[in-house]
Every structure is written in structure tokens, then in C-alpha cells.
């Protein structure tokens, strides 16, 4: 079989910014604190230990414990919640939206990466404890991004209205989604397991946050995962000084703007607003805007003087919600965290925040790109072998893959570079002659050169097309295999839901992920099931 991994840099699915981060290019080094190596965690531990307030540990542990009331919790998770009180305990964190039934596959990869790194650190630094944390994005409002999942190319969608933080959204109407999903599942023990899992999560809990906690706990609770909902009054109290600073001084905007200038050669992921906070209630999530010496809540009649706004903050900190710029700071203030594990897009916007963290006096975490995986059936792997394809081949864009394979199949070269070079040499001599005559002859020579080179390029394309017709059957089989592995020419992990694979492989799917994923290795894993 071909090699079962490919480097992120060579996969062709990561932006230049992420490739440069992975390669530790000099221009990006001022934008992060420590690169994710096992050795670098030693200094990160010491720095976080010296800066994280002991009082926060008690609040954090007690709050998480209260959120788990009524949830059947494994001994491993109970122990980890209790460990949060110890000053030798640190967290490894990933965050994700409350996607319906986990959404795309990479939800699993994020959490497995987080758990596996926690275990690896415990082995390397046995005198400390490391708790894997899933930070639920309960305060988000992008309902259209999370209200569906794909199952066997079919979109299973929840239709309802959403206005406030999605975590508070009532789960009413999800029984009809279960009915539609159940029909697609068919019969069998694994189908029943998935059906019951969806039912228990979404029809037996009142809001989306509780439903998602139940689901993630069922999938990962035995591995010691701790699930956190930061949409909480006691936790927001710990963040009051930073919210106040944002309201009064808008530090985030100026500091992030400084950093985005350094990223001008890349596509900037997010742009800061003047105030990077929302005002939230159960059915409200709107920006806080400062105009004419007053704080206005966008799209409402609500407005506050400075004193009134600060009074609301002291009495009701839960009404203030950090946006994408402030949320990472909130996370690192709350948690004794060492490392954040995220996708390429997340790492990109974290790289905008280093100077803001420095100005806020908060330790910047180690940033680790989550594991990426291509799941392959044994049948697909055999096809790949018979078609003489490597994993590197199937990661190519399809047009490039087809051209490469035709070039290999063909009995002669399809590259006319040698002929083009010969033609250019002949016209170089003609041009030298032309310069000794009048301008009209020079123009005629150049026009003819352009015409013949263009004709040669067209012949090259026509030859390639002719060869493709000859090998059409082989190329069709290659295309079908790649389409199955990369649906819509996109990454499988961004399209498919775990249920599709669990239906066939049950717990073996999870076992393979925990066995194969190495968080600190910069490799796109290929797992043959």
C-alpha cells in the first residue's frame, strides 16, 4: 500500500499563511508565542502557572461541575473536573460550534487531537495533569452554519427561527429532523445506536447547549473530555476587567490593526470593530456601538451612558458576549490553558491577536493545527492500489491528476517544451536578421513567431485531449475514486458526518482515530478502515 500520510504543506489544502506558520518562517514569529513542540510546553507550563489566579480554579471547577449535574459522567471526566482545582493542572482546549449532530467530521478530529495531546503531555511531564477541554461556542449566532449535517450526500436540516445565542435556542422541532434522519439510516444495530443517540441528545434536552454537551459526552466522556459552556454569569464575572477595558478604551481594535498590517501579504481572517462585544439576551445578540457619548445596542432602542453601561456590567456580566476578536482572550483568562487546537481558519485569526494579548497582560497559548484525516474504506484502498495511485496523487486537483496520469500512460511525451525551445531559437536568428532590414519585416517575424508558438501550444492541448480519449476508461475510474474521497472536490472532513462511517464501522472508527492521530506531527493522516 502507498504511504498513509502526507504533509500539510504538500496536501494543497492549506493557505499560504498556514503553510508559512508550519514552516516557522521568520516574518510570522512575532505573531505567536511558542511553536507547538513537546519541549516548548515546559516553558509554557511555568509561565501559565505563575500567571493564572488560584481563585479562578475554584470558580472554574465548581461551574463546570454544576453544568454536569444530571449528566451521566465517567470517572475520568469527574476526576478531570476535580483536578482543575490543583495548581499543577492545565488545560488543552479546542472550540467548536454547536453543529447539529456534530456537523462535519473534523469536529471529531479536533477533540481527538485535544485528548491525545493531553495524554502525550502527561507522559512527558508526569508531575503535572492535563485536562482536555471542549469549549462550546454557545454564544455564536450563525444558525445557518450549524442547523444541518450531510449524510450520504443528503442534507439533514433543522428549520426554525434563531435570534439570540444559539446555545440558548430551544430544541423544539428536532423530532421531525430525527424522523427524516431515521429514514435515511435504515435498519441494523448501528443504525439504532445512532438513532437513539440523536433522540437522547436533541429531543430530551431543552436547549442546544445541553443537547450538544450530552452528545459530546456520549462520544468522548469515557476519554475524560471536559465540556465547557462559557455563557455563564460566574465565569463572566472573572472577565469583567477586560470587558470594562474594552468598553472604555477599545484596546483590541488598535492592537489587532497593528498586527493585520504585518499580515498584509496574506488574506486577513477577521477585522476588528471599534467595540468587540455583543449585548445578549435569550432572543437578542447585537453589537455594542459607541456613538455621541452613549453606548447603543444595534438594531434596538437600548442605549446607556457610560455609568449605566458599567453598572449593567457589574450586575449582569452575562449580558456581555465577546465576539471573534475577544473570545480567545476570554478563553485564556478563564482557563489554565497551554494550547489551543484549531483548524487553519482559526489559527489564522489567532495570529492576529498576539499584540492584543500582550497589551491585556494575558499569556498567549501555543497554537496547534488540528489533525486532518482522510477516511478510506479497504475497498477504496484496493482500487487505489490497482490504479497505481499514491495518496499524493489523490490530493491533487482533478485536472492536474488527469494530466499527470495521461502523461504516464502515453507511449510518447505530451510535453512540447523541446519543440517550443527549438522554434524560439529559430526565430531568434530570424529576429537578428530582421533588425538589419526595415521595421515592417521585424513586425512580420514577431507576428509569425507568436502565431507558430500559439499553434504549437494548441497542438499540445489537442494531443493531450486525444490521449485522454484513448485512456478514458482508466481516467474515469480514477476520477470516480477521487470524487468519492474528495466530495465536490473538497475535503471529506468538511462535508461528511461521522454517522456515515459509524453506521459501517461502529466503535472501530473512534478506536482508529485515537490510535492513529498524532497532534504534534504535521501530517494529513490517511486511515484505512
Number of domains as seen in the coordinates: 3
Helix content: 40-55%
The main sheet orders its strands as 6-3-2-12-13
Largest sheet: 5 strands, parallel
Rounded mean pLDDT is 92
Question: What spatial form do the alpha-carbon principal axes imply?
Answer: globular
Query: Count of helical segments?
Result: 25
How far apart the termini lie comes to 14 Å
Structural category: alpha/beta
Beta content: 5-15%
Catalogue the unreliable spans: none
Question: How many beta-strand elements?
Answer: 15
What can you see in these coordinates?
With 529 residues, the protein is an alpha/beta fold. It folds into 3 domains: 298 residues, no CATH class; 65 residues, no CATH class; 116 residues, no CATH class. It is built from 25 helices and 15 strands. The strands form 4 sheets. It has a 5-stranded parallel β-sheet with strand order 6-3-2-12-13, with helices on both faces. Helix 6 links the parallel strand 2 and strand 3. Helix 9 runs antiparallel to helix 10 and helix 20 runs antiparallel to helix 23. The longest helix has 32 residues. It is globular, with a radius of gyration of 28 Å. The model has no long low-confidence stretch (mean pLDDT 92).
List keywords for this structure.
529 residues; alpha/beta; 3 domains; 5-stranded antiparallel β-sheet; 25 helices
Put the structure in a nutshell:
The protein is an alpha/beta fold and 529 residues long. 52% of the residues lie in helices and 14% in strands.
Amino acid at each position: 500500500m502507498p504511504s498513509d500520510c502526507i504533509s500539510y504543506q504538500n496536501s494543497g489544502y492549506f493557505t499560504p499563511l498556514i503553510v508559512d506558520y508550519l514552516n516557522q518562517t521568520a516574518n510570522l514569529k512575532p505573531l505567536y508565542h511558542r511553536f507547538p513542540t513537546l519541549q516548548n510546553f515546559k516553558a509554557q507550563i511555568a509561565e501559565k502557572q505563575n500567571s493564572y489566579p488560584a481563585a479562578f480554579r475554584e470558580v472554574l471547577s465548581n461551574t463546570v461541575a454544576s453544568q454536569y449535574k444530571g449528566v451521566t459522567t465517567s470517572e475520568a471526566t469527574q476526576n478531570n473536573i476535580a483536578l482543575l482545582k490543583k495548581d499543577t493542572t492545565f488545560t488543552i482546549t479546542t472550540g467548536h460550534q454547536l453543529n447539529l449532530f456534530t456537523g462535519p467530521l473534523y469536529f471529531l478530529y479536533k477533540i481527538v487531537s485535544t485528548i491525545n495531546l493531553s495524554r502525550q503531555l502527561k507522559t512527558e511531564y508526569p508531575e503535572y495533569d492535563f485536562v482536555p477541554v471542549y469549549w462550546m461556542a454557545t454564544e455564536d449566532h450563525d444558525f445557518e452554519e450549524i442547523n444541518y449535517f450531510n449524510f450520504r450526500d443528503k442534507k439533514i436540516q433543522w428549520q426554525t427561527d434563531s435570534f439570540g445565542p444559539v446555545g440558548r435556542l430551544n430544541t423544539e422541532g428536532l423530532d421531525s429532523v430525527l424522523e427524516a434522519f431515521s429514514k435515511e439510516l435504515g435498519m441494523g444495530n448501528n443504525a439504532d445506536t445512532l438513532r437513539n443517540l440523536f433522540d437522547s441528545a436533541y429531543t430530551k434536552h431543552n436547549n442546544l447547549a445541553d443537547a450538544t454537551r450530552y452528545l459530546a459526552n456520549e462520544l468522548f466522556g469515557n476519554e475524560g473530555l471536559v465540556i465547557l459552556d462559557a455563557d455563564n454569569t460566574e465565569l463572566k464575572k472573572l472577565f469583567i476587567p477586560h470587558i470594562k477595558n474594552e468598553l472604555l478604551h477599545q484596546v483590541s481594535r488598535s492592537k489587532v490593526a497593528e498586527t493585520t498590517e504585518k499580515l498584509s501579504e496574506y488574506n486577513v481572517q477577521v477585522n476588528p470593530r471599534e467595540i468587540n462585544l455583543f449585548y445578549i439576551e435569550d432572543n437578542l445578540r447585537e453589537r455594542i456601538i459607541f456613538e455621541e457619548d452613549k453606548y447603543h445596542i444595534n438594531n434596538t432602542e437600548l442605549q446607556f451612558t457610560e455609568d449605566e453601561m458599567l453598572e449593567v456590567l457589574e450586575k449582569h456580566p452575562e449580558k456581555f458576549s465577546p465576539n471573534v476578536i475577544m473570545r480567545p482572550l476570554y478563553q485564556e483568562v478563564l482557563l489554565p490553558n497551554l494550547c489551543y487546537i484549531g483548524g487553519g481558519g482559526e489559527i489564522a485569526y489567532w495570529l492576529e491577536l498576539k499584540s492584543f494579548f500582550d497589551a491585556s497582560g494575558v499569556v498567549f497559548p501555543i497554537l496547534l493545527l488540528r489533525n486532518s484525516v482522510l477516511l478510506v474504506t479497504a475497498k477504496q484502498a484496493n482500487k487505489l492500489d490497482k490504479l497505481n495511485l499514491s495518496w499524493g496523487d489523490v490530493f491533487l486537483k482533478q485536472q492536474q491528476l488527469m494530466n499527470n496520469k495521461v502523461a504516464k500512460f502515453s507511449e510518447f511525451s505530451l510535453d512540447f517544451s523541446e519543440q517550443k525551445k527549438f522554434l524560439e531559437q529559430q526565430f531568434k536568428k530570424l529576429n537578428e536578421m530582421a533588425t538589419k532590414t526595415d521595421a515592417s519585416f521585424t513586425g512580420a517575424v514577431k507576428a509569425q513567431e507568436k502565431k507558430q508558438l500559439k499553434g504549437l501550444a494548441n497542438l499540445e492541448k489537442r494531443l493531450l485531449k486525444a490521449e485522454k480519449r484513448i485512456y478514458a476508461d482508466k481516467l474515469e475510474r480514477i476520477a470516480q475514486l477521487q470524487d468519492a474521497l474528495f466530495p465536490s472536490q473538497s475535503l471529506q472532513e468538511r462535508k461528511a458526518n461521522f454517522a456515515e462511517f459509524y453506521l459501517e464501522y461502529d466503535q472501530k472508527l473512534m478506536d482508529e482515530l485515537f490510535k492513529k492521530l498524532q497532534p504534534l506531527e504535521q501530517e494529513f493522516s490517511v486511515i484505512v478502515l
